[in-house]
Here is the input.
Amino acid sequence: MIIQKTQLFVKNYKLINLLFAGIFGMVFLYSGIFSAKKNNYLIPSACIVKPCASTGLSRGFSEIMRFNFKSAKKFNNNSITIFLFFLIQFFLRLLFVKILNKKNCITILFSDISFSILLYIYTFNGLIFTN
Amino acid sequence: MSEEKTNAGQGLGIAGFVLGILALIISFIPCLGMYALVPGIIAIILSAIGFSQASKSNGSKGLIIAALVVSILGTIIAGWQYYAISHVANTYVDALENFDDEFKDAMDDIEEDGNLDASALVSGTEDIDKYIKEEDYDKVIDIYEKTVDKYIENLKNMSEGNLSNLGENMAAVTMVTAVTVKVAAAEPFFSDEQRERFEKIQKKYDDMEKE
Here is the structure.
């Protein structure tokens, strides 16, 4: 099927945004279903020797989903900022799906790349550079 | 962007790109990063197939190349994380194995030389029995003091991180327990002077335990 390159780009971009929104939505769902009290998470901790920077992140997310922000900070000090990354990205993806068209696609693409990288560095900074 | 292309390989390219970005996001996180190997490798495979399809059918390759780049980058970082974690884990396991060997050696020392160590510390618990029978309580207290002194000395060495005499330490712990039981049984027969001396040694022992 022959298709104009811009049209293909917009179509792909929208699909990618929808997929990411779905994945971020699943992160929220995962955090909502599993709780810190029961500690019944499907993904086991990778920190086998001693607690590391990512320890308590799942429990922290679960507590945020239940609006227990103080408790979330106790589980992992960076949990709130990282959760914020997923939350902002979730709404950003939905927004881009809504506003993306042939005219603004390049502007949105570069704004998206720049903003997402900066947001990632800002929110994951404490987690990545502490160890 | 007015060039016309087919959409061959685009579906695989999108899947590869999404998984690749996910792998890249996760790969930087300490410990958790090694899990990014799974989406990273899948993303590389999908992108490679997508690239091949796009090449054959004049498909758009921009997205597929981007997918390949992010997934390779994510996989490399995740691989490094996996290497780092397995290296730490191996070091930990080695240390545990060495500790087991050291501990086994110490236990063997106690088994083989326990009596020798004990006799070096004191004349042995059998001597206490002998002195109690003879009602020579000064000698009983002498043995008790020597045992406690040796125990305290070993405890100090251990608290300073010196574990080289683990066997002797174990022997001292065993001795001090056995001697204390026997001396406590003889205590009602002590003179006031002997009791005072006995209590001083006990205090020394208790203070060290607290420290």
